[in-house]
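Notebook entry, structure prediction.
Reason for the run: the old model in the group folder had no record of what sequence produced it. Starting over properly, with the input documented here first.
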Amino acid sequence: MWFKNLQVYRLPAGWDISAETLEDQLARKRFVPCGSQDQETRGWVSPTGDEFLLHRVGGQWLIALGLEQKLLPSSVVKQEAEERAEDIAARQGYKLGRKQMKDLREQVMQELLPRAFTRRRKVFAWIDPVGGWLGIDAPSQARAEDVLEALRQSLDALPLGLLRTERSPTGAMADWLAGGEAPAGFTIDQDCELRSVGEDKAAVRYVRHPLEGDEVRGHLAAGKLPTRLALTFDDRVSFVLSEKLEIKRVDFLDVVREKLDEQGADDARALFDGGFALMTAEFGRLLPALIDALGGELNAGASGVELRPAA
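New structure, fully documented this time:
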């Protein structure tokens, strides 16, 4: 159990909900596979394949949103509708109007949906109810919104806020690159993206390339700002920090994974739980250190914005 990305949100410390209550409320939106006329369904599934929707390891919680989507490309629907429209036009002697074509495309879609292939995926979310973290394993905030929307629909109240820091990631990353030095506990790796703030939106990307020296500083002096920067924390976790405070391409290094080997877990569940415990422990160290490197948390201690289920 290792996240590849981390979209980070804030819960109030000591979030006042029990694991049993959360389990019951998640069950309001349990996953149901697509019916014959459904294009997509989503709902909560067990993270470990048992009957429970909430998995607990050492005070850390794991939930998973299941999504199923019918694969029916619009081009296939369009082609089938056009072929049928030609046959109809040949029989009746004139082409179908705009509304008739729209109705025909909808009819074709309804007929093809039951035969369409389906694709399933899971999106995992980590909850630290004491530390006040909600982390979603999603490559973008837009993808994380699937989980947030499902939580809004399931829970009585979700006191959730965005993680905000005193310094913007862009400004901090620019200073680290200009000075050639990462904040305490971090090292700068060899991937970076710099983008112009001007109308041309010119961009420079470095991949496995040293970032010291005058070349990168020249781009900074010319007005380009970093939108992504690869970092390593404490020689244990490497990741890419984005301008939106997203943590991407997370990689737990050998020193962390070797701990799991030392535990001597001998079955799949023990390996899963051991990996989840190690991962959340590392996130519990990484996030405060990163916030400190960005000048501290803005409005620390605020309870966040309470998001209630949609009416």
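Summary: The CA atoms of residues 102 and 297 lie 52 Å apart.
The old model has been moved to the deprecated folder.
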